[in-house]
Each structure stands twice: as structure tokens, then as C-alpha cells.
Specification:
Layout: H1 2-23, E1 30-36, H2 54-60, E2 65-71, H3 78-87, H4 106-114, E3 121-125, E4 148-151, H5 163-177, E5 181-186, H6 190-194, H7 198-220, E6 229-234, H8 256-259, E7 260-266, E8 274-276, E9 280-281, H9 283-292
Parallel strand pairs: 1-5, 1-6, 2-8, 2-9, 3-4, 3-5
Antiparallel strand pairs: 2-7, 6-7
Length: 310
């Protein structure tokens, strides 16, 4: 009898302790991923002058952490890169929007475990084909627990839209639905890169830099999001190095230009004005978000980036 009472007392002491710790382990209640599509490291954080990303360097880095050795370890294409960061698995996936990911995403796991409706998780993208991020092939998840989407002109295979329109839609969604989880894709500078437009490519990087600061300021000026929101600014892939194939015009190989990307992270749980040089990759984004928002993601192959936490 005494043994039973002792074990029961341990259950209450440690049970409540563990439960309380789980519920309060992070201050983050919302996560926004901003994907600036296809810049090379050499024109962004690899440029010592930071000419094309002055806002991120001067205003955002002092408030967050930067991973200088962040990488795409899977397939250096748009859909492959986005799928890796949203599912935590590198997947060889069709890049035209004809194929959905094999594995469930952060959005599906979040909606299922938190028992919320689709408007609490959003896929908002300039590229129409990225609507594929809302679903997966896994039979236990297919067509279930899907997030809301706002992609391209009117969904997959409709046509891409301007980044300025996408950003406007993001703010409308945040105001109307107050979602906890959003992924945003801006098609520049990738679009201009493929058009062999060097000036347009650089302007695309500069526009993404401007939108990143604007988004962070919007978060700080919104009572619902301020102090409770993590912003992850990253890329899906880089581009060929000069001298590799057709250089900045394309991407998709194993060269350092295609693989080496970046991650800038800001939020209430993170250190500030810190630069990490250790290797991290896109799969770690999914696992870190699951940790931040306190849900299990058993299929992710990524790791929680614990070193950036306070």
C-alpha cells in the first residue's frame, strides 16, 4: 500500500511538472516562413558589403540569428526545396506542380494535433505550383488536415503572380484569420534569374530584403502577433556558380552555388545578433517549427536547431 502511495505521489509530482514544462517551453505561438526564391549566397550574406540586403543586415540580424552554413541537401529546385522545409524530408519531386509531396507537412501535423480548422495554417505563394505543399501522398494524410491556400493567380496551374500581390494577401490573411502558421513564397529573384536578367535578379533580392523588414515590422505592430511570433527567412535553393553551366540563369545541380543558401531567424525564443557557422539544412526547419509550436512530427528527418534558443 505504501509503495502504491509512493508511486502515485511521484506520478502527481513529476506528471504535473512535465506537463507544465511542455505547455510553457516556448513563447512562440505563431511561425511565419518567408521564402525568397532562388538568390545565390554570393549576392546575399556571402557579400561582405551586404549591398543588396541592407535591411536584413542592419535591422534584422541584430534582432535574430543567422546561419551562414545553411544548405539545401536534397533537390535544388523550387518544389523540392519547399517540400524539404515543410515536410522535413528531402524528396525528388516533380517541379511543375504535377506531384504532391510523399510525406505530411508541418501544416497537416499542426491542424491535426491542435484540432484547428484550415484557416489557422496557410500556404501563400507567388508561384501557383506551390499549392502542392497543402497535401501529400501518404494515405493516412491524403486530402486530410489540409491548410488554406492562396497560390498564384488562382491555384495550381493558373499562373504566377507579382510578389507585391502576394505580400498584400499575406497581410489580409493575417488580419482576417490570425493564423498560427504561414509559409510565404516570393518568386523573385528566381523569376528574373531564369530570364537572364541580371539587373532584375539583383532588384529581386533587394525587394525580398525590403519585404522581410516590412513583414517583421508588421508583426511587431500587431497586438495578436507581437512578442509571440517567430519569423524564418530563407531560400529554397541557390543558383549555379559563375562558370558552372549557364551561371546565375539556372540552378538544380550539386554545385556550391545551388546548395549554399541561408537562414535568418527572429523570435521571442531565440538569441539575438548571433551568427552560427555550423551546418544546418532545410529539413531542420520543419522539426524546429514542430518544437516551437509543441506538436509531434514523426516523419521529419530534421533536427531541432537548439543552439539558437536562449
Amino acid at each position: 500500500m505504501l509503495k502504491k502511495l509512493f508511486l502515485l505521489s511521484l506520478f502527481f509530482v513529476f506528471g504535473f511538472s512535465f506537463s507544465s514544462k511542455k505547455e510553457s517551453k516556448t513563447e512562440t505561438e505563431n511561425v511565419i516562413i518567408l521564402v525568397i526564391d532562388g538568390p545565390r549566397y554570393t549576392e546575399t550574406w556571402g557579400d561582405s558589403t551586404h549591398t543588396h540586403i541592407p535591411n536584413m543586415f542592419n535591422h534584422l540580424l541584430p534582432q535574430g540569428v543567422l546561419y551562414q552554413n545553411f544548405r539545401n541537401t536534397g533537390f535544388t529546385i523550387t518544389n523540392g526545396g519547399h517540400a524539404a522545409m515543410s515536410t522535413g524530408v528531402d524528396q525528388n519531386i516533380d517541379n511543375t506542380g504535377k506531384e504532391i509531396p510523399q510525406f505530411p507537412s508541418i501544416f497537416q501535423y499542426f491542424i491535426k494535433e491542435k484540432r484547428v480548422d484550415s484557416t489557422k495554417a496557410w500556404v501563400i505563394t507567388s508561384k501557383d505550383k506551390l499549392e502542392i505543399l497543402a497535401n501529400c501522398k501518404d494515405s493516412a494524410w491524403h486530402n486530410r488536415f489540409m491548410p488554406a491556400t492562396d497560390c498564384g493567380l488562382n491555384g495550381n496551374h493558373s499562373a504566377d503572380r507579382k510578389d507585391s500581390v502576394t505580400v498584400h494577401h499575406v497581410y489580409e490573411v493575417m488580419k482576417k484569420y490570425q493564423p498560427n502558421l504561414i509559409i510565404i513564397n516570393l518568386k523573385e529573384p528566381d523569376f528574373s534569374g531564369h530570364a537572364a536578367n541580371w539587373k532584375g535578379y539583383l532588384k529581386g533580392i533587394e525587394a525580398g530584403d525590403k519585404y522581410a523588414l516590412e513583414l517583421w515590422n508588421t508583426i511587431q505592430n500587431d497586438a495578436h502577433y507581437k512578442g509571440k511570433t517567430t519569423l524564418l527567412i530563407t531560400s529554397d535553393h541557390g543558383r549555379h556558380l559563375d562558370g558552372v553551366k549557364n551561371g546565375f540563369i539556372n540552378h538544380g545541380c550539386d554545385c556550391e552555388g545551388c546548395r549554399h543558401i541561408n537562414l535568418l531567424a527572429l523570435g521571442p525564443d531565440f538569441k539575438q545578433n548571433i551568427i552560427f557557422n555550423n551546418h544546418r539544412n532545410q529539413k531542420d526547419i520543419a522539426s524546429t517549427i514542430a518544437y516551437l509550436l509543441s506538436f509531434q512530427m514523426t516523419t521529419s528527418k530534421g533536427e531541432v536547431m537548439t543552439e539558437m534558443f536562449k
